[in-house]
Write a structure and sequence with these properties.
The protein is mainly beta and 226 residues long. The protein has a domain at 10-146: Double-stranded beta-helix (4-Layer Sandwich). It has helices at residues 54-59, 182-188, 209-216, and strands at residues 10-13, 20-25, 30-34, 38-41, 45-52, 64-71, 76-80, 88-101, 105-108, 112-119, 130-144, 149-154, 158-161, 165-169, 172-178, 192-198, 200-205. The strands form three sheets. Strands 3, 5, 6, 8, 9, 10, 11, 12, 14 and 17 form a ten-stranded antiparallel beta sheet that branches. A four-stranded antiparallel beta sheet has the order 1-2-7-4, with no helix packed on it. The protein has a three-stranded antiparallel beta sheet with strand order 13-16-15, with no helix packed on it.
């Protein structure tokens, strides 16, 4: 997995807070992009919408919606703005696999296959589940975070709250469970964690949406029923 290798030319601007991705799509080639993330595009790009995961996963909110942009009659440029404010990373897969959290996928070249799969179970306290996107094959892959991104080299056991996981490599084994027992999780307000073991890489984000929502709770207007 080489972050410096690339199939398509690209540029990432406005790092690390509000990253914006620009990709040059060669003539006759296609780029797979997260739905609703296209901000700008050349007039010769043609879009086709697809859904990964099937109808059953769509009904449970576990499908991945992807728009395919194809450059016709010459190369084309596309500007991509991920939905969450945060950082953005690129890796080049060479017959390798990386797992992304459900909201992390931004874009990929055609040689990268994406497959949505659900792991674990929904956290009783945190409302979180480990819904993963399996990305494998050969080509460019871009993914993003909510907040800044930290790349961690794992060489032994490592524990991450599921809400902070962005991505991890296939060589790692993982188990999803509660930190401590049921009573400990209730008293501490902690939810599910992922226990990694083996050797590989984990990308984590420095913020998560539920924690931010709880932080803003005291500042929300209160309805007066008097």
């Amino acid at each position: 997995m080489n972050p410096d290798a690339r199939e398509y030319e690209y540029a990432i601007e406005c790092k690390p807070d509000f990253a914006f991705l620009t990709v040059q799509i060669p003539a006759g080639q296609t780029l797979k992009v997260e739905a609703s993330a296209m901000a700008t595009m050349g007039t010769n790009l043609v879009m086709k919408a697809k859904m990964k995961g099937g109808l059953s996963r769509f009904l449970t909110g576990e499908s991945l919606f992807i728009n395919e942009f194809t450059a016709q009659n010459g190369p084309g440029e596309i500007g991509i703005a991920p939905g969450s404010p945060g950082d953005l990373e690129h890796v080049h897969l060479n017959n390798e696999t990386i797992f992304l959290q459900s909201s992390a996928f931004v874009a990929a070249t055609p040689g990268v296959q994406t497959d949505s799969k659900w792991q674990g179970f929904k956290g009783f306290f945190s409302g979180e589940s480990l819904f993963l996107i399996r990305c494998s094959g050969v080509g460019d892959l871009w993914f993003n975070t909510y907040g800044a991104m930290i790349e961690v080299d794992v060489t032994q056991d490592y524990i991450v709250d599921t809400g902070y996981i962005v991505a991890f490599t296939e060589g790692l084994q993982y188990e999803v469970g509660m930190l401590g027992g049921l009573r400990t999780s209730f008293l501490s307000s902690e939810g599910l964690v992922c226990r990694f073991s083996g050797q590989g890489k984990v990308w984590i984000q420095t913020r998560q949406v539920p924690a931010f929502a709880w932080w803003t709770l005291p500042f929300r207007p209160q309805k007066n029923n008097g």
